[in-house]
Backbone:
């Protein structure tokens, strides 16, 4: 008697990372991948952090004004609830650094369930340190795209961004830390500039 094939459980997915400093084109790359997936008929969920109020909360918007629809969530628990609500093939997370290190196990769970997860965000803080959870994701991802910006002083590759102000200014005790997740990390050319290694002058 022939064996009746038994449907195997959905195989594990994959983790892709898009990382870099501000103004490096991370959001544009995320949007490009999402658009291609939708054209291919892939079931896509795009998530953003509700802390980012630079534009319509229901969209991801690049510094150039390009946008795509997204579901805004305020914390990891809300993100997990939305992602588990359906069997998505692709989950794209914008500005992942805003969710903090607690995002890591949730992303790993989604990958184990079979989804492709694209995590996009800042891998470096404005004072030049690693910005979790992006370094952790970069260490274990199937694919990592590390982008650079353009130094506004010399035009070379910029792997850093810093707050607008006097180079090397001494930060006050009241200044938020570079890893604090608050509105101080949100801004554009009026608040931050891209810098190469030579011209990067973090606060002291």
Residues:
């Amino acid at each position: 008697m022939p064996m009746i094939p038994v449907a195997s459980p959905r195989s594990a997915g994959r983790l892709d990372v898009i990382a870099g400093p501000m103004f490096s084109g991370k959001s544009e790359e995320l949007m490009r991948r999402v658009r291609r997936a939708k054209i291919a008929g892939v079931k896509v969920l795009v998530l953003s952090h509700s802390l980012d109020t630079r534009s319509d909360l229901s969209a991801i918007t690049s510094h150039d004004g390009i946008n795509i629809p997204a579901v805004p969530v305020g914390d990891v628990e809300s993100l997990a609830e939305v992602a588990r609500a359906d069997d998505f093939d692709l989950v794209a997370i914008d500005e992942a650094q805003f969710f903090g290190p607690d995002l890591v196990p949730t992303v790993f769970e989604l990958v184990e369930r079979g989804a492709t997860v694209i995590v996009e965000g800042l891998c470096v803080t404005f004072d030049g340190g690693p910005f979790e959870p992006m370094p952790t994701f970069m260490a274990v991802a199937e694919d990592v795209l590390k982008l650079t910006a353009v130094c506004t002083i010399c035009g070379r590759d910029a792997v850093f961004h810093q707050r607008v102000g006097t180079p090397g200014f001494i930060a006050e005790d009241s200044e938020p830390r570079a890893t604090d997740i608050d509105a101080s990390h949100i801004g554009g050319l009026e608040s931050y500039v891209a810098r190469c290694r030579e011209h990067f002058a973090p606060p002291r």
